[in-house]
Amino acid sequence: MIIARTRTELADALGRLRAEGGTLGLVPTMGFLHEGHLSLVDRAAGVSDHVAATIFVNPLQFGPDEDFEQYPRDEARDVRLLEERGAELVFIPATGVMYPSGQPLVTVDPGPMSDRLCGAFRPGHFRGVLTVVSKLFGLLRPDMAVFGRKDFQQAVLIRKMVQDLELGVEVVTGPIVREPDGLALSSRNTYLSPEERAQAPAIQAGLKAAASRFAEGERRARSLVEAVRAEVEPRSLLSLQYAELVDPESLEPADPAFEGAVLAVAAFAGATRLIDNLVLAAESR
Fold first, then answer.
1. pLDDT at position 283, please?
2. Which of 36, 45, 126, 159 fits as disulfide partner to 114, beta carbons 3.0 to 4.6 Å?
3. In CATH, what number is assigned to the domain containing residue 207?
4. Closest Cα to residue 144, out of 115, 114, 174, 122?
5. Are residues 118 and 159 in the same domain?
6. Average pLDDT over residues 227-249
7. What is the four-CA torsion angle of 148, 184, 175, 253, rounded to 10 degrees?
8. CB count, 10 Å around CB of 129?
9. What is the mean pLDDT of residues 128-153?
């Protein structure tokens, strides 16, 4: 596996891969990889001839009171895991490589769809996400890129950016990967105390309870959200930030509920913010 840290090293590595022909799949990450990230590498390998990953903790998507400095990092472990999964190239730029002129003067405006769900509580976050993703697309020129469905709103906005700006990258979404007790895998799970970790699976339990109500015929969004609240709110260490049922394309409220609508949740376990979501289906899954 080739490790590139500079733009010159990246260009040389991409030239070698493209000389072999075939398509390039990209998996952008912020590192501290877990099985969820690695499943995206597997997905990329299944739909492209070559797989590249990136590891970059992007300062533009962190707010002033968020965890940019504390975000977990383990580059050596990440590189080993990516090589074991068959990635052929990993790009690990320093902040000065990604943003050689400092804070970029031109950024990607995510539009009104970023004002809902997570964006309502993290102003500027999706501007930072779309800006760095567009730069990575420009630097690597992938044929396709794979993102996880746990970051549901992010995946929707990236797909819209690619469509509206004609970026020519196929956006593929990989499923949520969970711990045996249902907690969605996240690099931030390492922040949880043992007591917080014990209560965190109530988030998915609430989503499953809502899915069961939907499968039984309930179509009122309020009732489905109440099913989530009934599981999360009794837990003393959990605090629900939002639970909303939305259209998966527009992110507008979905009421009455319909098959394919997405129930999205954000909650705090202590000081750690966790997100999760579920696609409603006619049969409980």
1. 63
2. 126
3. 3.30.1300.10
4. 174
5. yes
6. 98
7. -80
8. 25
9. 98
Rounded Cα distance, 46 and 199, in Å: 35
Share of the chain above pLDDT 90, in %: 98
Q: How confident is the model at residue 138 (pLDDT cuts 50, 70, 90)?
A: very high
Q: What's the total number of domains in the chain?
A: 2
| Together in a domain, 251 and 272 | yes
On whether both 163 and 252 belong to a single domain, the answer is no
Q: What is the pLDDT of residue 55?
A: 98
For residues 32 and 38, give the distance between their C-alpha atoms in angstroms, rounded to a whole number.
11
| Residue 49 domain boundaries | 2-174
The span from the CA of 68 to the CA of 73, in Å, is 11
Determine how many CB atoms are found less than 10 A away from the CB of residue 97.
Answer: 17
C-alpha–C-alpha distance, residues 53 and 87, integer Å: 7
Residue 96: is its pLDDT beyond 90? yes
Q: What is the pLDDT of the chain when averaged over all its residues?
A: 97
- Nearby residues of 69 by Cβ (< 8 Å), 6 or more positions away: none
In the prediction, which pLDDT does 285 show?
Answer: 47
pLDDT of the residue at 145? 98
Domain membership of residue 179 (yes or no) is no
pTM of the model: 0.96
Q: For residue 172, give every residue at least 6 positions away whose Cβ sits within 8 Å of its Cβ, in sequence order, or none.
A: 25, 43, 44, 47, 144, 145, 146, 147
* pLDDT over 80 at 282, yes or no: no
Domain annotation covers residue 180: no
Q: Looking at the chain, how many residues does it have?
A: 285
Contact 40, 174 (CB under 8 A): yes
At residue 24, the 3 state secondary structure works out as strand
Q: pLDDT value at position 141?
A: 98
Q: In the sheet that 2-4 helps form, which strands lie side by side, from edge to edge? A: 2-4, 89-91, 50-55, 24-29, 144-148, 170-174
- 92 sits in the region (left: phi over 0; alpha: psi -120 to 50; else beta) called beta
